[in-house]
Amino acid sequence: MIRLIWLFILTNSFLLGGVLYAQPTVRVNNEKTTVESLPDLLTLKHGEPVNSPEVWERLKRPELLHLFKNEVYGMVPDGDPIPSSIEVIEESDAAFNNKAHRIQFALDFKKGHRNLRVHILLYLPKDVFNPPVFLGYNFYGNHTVVHDDNVLVSDSWVRNNETLDVYNHKANQKSRGKRSYRWPVDKILQEGFGIATVYYGDIDPDRNDFTDGIHPFFYKEGQDEPGLNEWGSLTAWAWGLSRILDCLKGYEATADSKYILFGHSRLGKTVLWASALDQRFDMVIANNSGCGGAALFRRKNGETIQLINNRFPHWFSKSFKKYNDKEAMLPLDQHMLIALNAPRPVYIASAIKDKWADPEGEYLSAYYASPVYELYNKRGLSDRNFPDVNKPIHQTIGYHVRSGKHDVTAYDWKQFMIFAKGHLND
Ligand code: GTR
Questions:
Q1: Interhelix angle for 233-249 vs 266-277, to 10°?
Q2: What is the pLDDT of residue 426?
Q3: What is the band of 13 on the pLDDT scale with cuts at 50, 70, 90?
Q4: Dihedral sign for Cα atoms in the order 126, 130, 131, 136
Q5: 229 CB-side CA count, 13 A
Q6: Keyword ATP-binding: yes or no (predicted)?
Q7: Rounded distance between C-alpha atoms, residue 180 and residue 261, angstroms
Q8: How far apart are CA 405 and CA 396, in angstroms?
Q9: d(CA 386, CA 38)
Q10: pLDDT band at 367 (very low <50, low <70, confident <90, very high)
């Protein structure tokens, strides 16, 4: 039985994209038995065992994808591909003091009178051909990620943010480089990686409005919002990552690169789902992804299904709302999302003060995904006990909980690069 052990209000507040939010009420459910009742990964819906990679891939994987599409994130509507074109609109081989190439692409989607432009910013180290590439969305525009005056300022709707001087939902020159502390691009290039980033709002502005972004391109006549089990914003962002990958794979200098998806917070949720859907991504790193990302729903620690659906009604499909405060009814949990990445390397990163994301729930989810990795003779996480702070584990499933709060830090990137180098050729 699920029992709420205590209820408290955290007195601190948290920074979301530089905006100070009052920390919502955090419910803590300390009942360990709830995670022991997780739906079983290695049993098919009619009860047969999943005992080989072949059975996993042919039967269990599709079964789970179907559930996640129908019950949680929503599916991309069927239909003809949206016509798109890709163009290099700016490039230089003098970026980062002549050490890197910078390429900016415009990816345009067109349908009838609709046009959606997505800007891709790519940096490549000069001395490596087809290097492994980190690919991740940013929260406020490509120009916020680096101190580089040549990066184009996004024209899409952005969330207001006083720290970044974003008012009236328009990015501007003042926010150049203001998020560079989260993106050690110079270091990433020095270590021999490329890095590609896109402002996530180019694909779908992060607001409860389905008349903008990519969704309307898929509407049937008369439709003005997604249907019950159709996509919310998380699936739209995930879909966008695959289209960005199409572009990068079509570009000579990155055609044979390996791709490491990276995302923080809501974008950590996005990348786990994106790489579950698209197995061309070679590795995925989800930082502080929390509820709807790595964390187990059934623990109900920190953010819950009801809380997330109420605050962000556009993220998931409408059908997910029926699980508000009914976690036990879910036919799945997030260990299954992590397992959908098997046998590719996956890294889950938590921060000990990020209680809202339930660090231990993120760890246990990765731990309970491990049996699928073992089917492939890969090592997941073998110890059910939550590890010590700042003691990373780098098996084919990697995990760390670092000191500090919800953020992306130099420590995180150091671990991500060590993990990527150690596991890209697994
Ligand atoms: C919070 C939200 C989390 C997380 C975070 C973020 O407000 O409750 O699920 O996604 O935002 O994306 O920064």
A1: 60
A2: 83
A3: very low
A4: positive
A5: 8
A6: no
A7: 18
A8: 25
A9: 18
A10: very high
Is the shortest distance between the CB of 19 and ligand 1 below 6 Å? no
Torsion of CA 300, 303, 305, 309, to 10 degrees: 170
Contacts of 46 (CB under 8 A, 6+ apart): none
Secondary structure letter of residue 38 according to DSSP: P
* Displacement of CA 137 from its chain's centroid (Å): 8
The gap from C-alpha 376 to its chain's centroid, in whole angstroms, comes to: 24
Q: How far apart are CA 151 and CA 99, in angstroms?
A: 16
Residue 242 appears among annotated catalytic residues: no
CA–CA dist 367, 370 (Å, integer): 5
Supply the residue whose CA is at minimum distance from atom 7 of ligand 1.
16
Is 265 an annotated catalytic residue? yes
Ligand 1 contact, 265 CB (< 6 A):
yes
Torsion 349-352-358-359 (CA) sign:
positive
Helix (H, G, I), strand (E, B) or coil at 187: helix
Distance in angstroms (rounded) separating the CA atoms of residues 285 and 66:
23
- The single-letter code of the amino acid at 339 is A
Peptide bond into 83 cis (omega under 30): no
Mutate-to-test residue for ligand 1 from 234, 305, 356, 358, highest number of ligand atoms within 8 A of CB: 356
Q: Which residues pair with 347 in a beta bridge?
A: 285, 398
Dihedral-angle region of residue 395 (phi above 0 means left; psi in -120 to 50 means alpha; beta otherwise): beta
The stretch 13-25 carries a mean pLDDT of: 36
User: DSSP assignment of 62-103, as one string?
Assistant: HHHHHHIIIIII-BPPPSSPPPEEEEEEEEEEEHHHHTEEEE
Which of these ranges, 29-33, 104-108, 215-219, 253-257, has the smallest mean pLDDT?
Answer: 29-33
CA distance 347 to 276: 13
pLDDT digits (tens, 9 = 90+) for 50-76: 999 999 999 999 999 999 999 999 999
DSSP states along 9-25: ----EEEETTEEEEPPP
